[in-house]
């Protein structure tokens, strides 16, 4: 499922640490990795040459830090607008996953401050693993929270979580259905009788096939806030959230303004979650 990974390396943040943690997972160890650094256009040949040199050093440092098998890693230095280049390269290499850093900007501020990760998420068809630049620590992935709903993208997220954890010892998947008949506060979230929930029941059946430990939670309240609260309360290492593409085919090349302005669940979680967030969608 994850055979080709694109790491968009800006020279700052936690993306390299995230990939090193992912490489502890058997599934990811088989993947080919492309490490991309984008050099924005500059005014004047001298400035451009300097930026290329800096970019080359950043890329070399990233490759050295990652310490990957040379046969499984490709370094790529490109010029252009990072938002456009990341999307283009992801399509060129047919990436299964994009890893990017995020400043956690929200709404209009993300637009005005030229948030690369936000725009790439809007326009890319691949799942994205977003890692905040200011996360305190990135830990081995053992406990994964999967936000469930009836959408195909949520089902895709569950499949990703299972694929990541199926060969990881002592791992756990936490299945959360925030829009549910089971009304419980976060502190009293249920751990039994998921069969009474039409979303959790089939998810549990799927997880059981692989012998992965699981819990089911169905807290009441606003979905975004409850998901983030649970991620904190349960000390999860990764949050997986399906993000359906609401845009019609004619608008595939344009950002979804509702999301850009912070009017979506995925945007809320992207901004407020205190752990890495894997945003999944079905390839269009």
From TrEMBL:
Limits of the UspA domain: 1-132, 141-281
Gene3D superfamilies: HUPs (3.40.50.620)
Top-level division of the source organism's lineage: Bacteria
Pfam families from the UniProt entry: Usp
Family (UniProt): Belongs to the universal stress protein A family.
Name of the protein: Universal stress protein
Species of origin: Vasconcelosia minhoensis LEGE 07310
């Amino acid at each position: 499922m994850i055979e080709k990974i694109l790491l968009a390396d800006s020279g700052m943040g936690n993306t390299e640490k995230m990939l090193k943690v992912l490489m502890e997972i058997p599934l990811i160890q088989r993947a080919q990795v492309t490490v991309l650094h984008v050099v924005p256009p500059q005014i004047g040949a001298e400035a451009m040459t300097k930026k290329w040199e800096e970019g080359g050093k950043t890329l070399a440092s990233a490759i050295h830090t990652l310490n990957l098998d040379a046969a499984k890693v490709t370094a790529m230095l490109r010029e252009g607008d990072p938002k456009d280049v990341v999307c283009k390269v992801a399509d060129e290499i047919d990436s299964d996953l994009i890893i990017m850093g995020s400043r956690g900007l929200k709404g209009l501020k993300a637009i005005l401050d030229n948030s690369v990760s936000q725009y790439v998420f809007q326009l890319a068809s691949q799942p994205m693993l977003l890692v905040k630049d200011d996360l305190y620590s990135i830990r081995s992935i053992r406990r994964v929270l999967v936000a469930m709903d009836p959408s195909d993208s949520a089902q895709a997220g569950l499949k990703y979580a299972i694929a990541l954890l199926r060969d990881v010892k002592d791992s756990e998947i936490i299945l959360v259905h925030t829009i549910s008949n089971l009304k419980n506060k976060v502190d009293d979230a249920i751990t039994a009788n998921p069969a009474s929930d039409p979303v959790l029941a089939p998810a549990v059946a799927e997880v059981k096939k692989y012998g992965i430990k699981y819990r089911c939670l169905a807290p009441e309240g606003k979905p975004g806030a409850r998901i983030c609260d649970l991620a904190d309360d349960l000390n999860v290492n990764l949050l997986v959230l399906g993000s359906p593409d609401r845009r019609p085919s004619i608008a595939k090349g344009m950002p979804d303004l509702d999301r850009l302005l912070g009017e979506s669940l995925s945007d809320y979680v992207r901004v407020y979650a205190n752990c890495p967030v894997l945003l999944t969608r079905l390839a269009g």
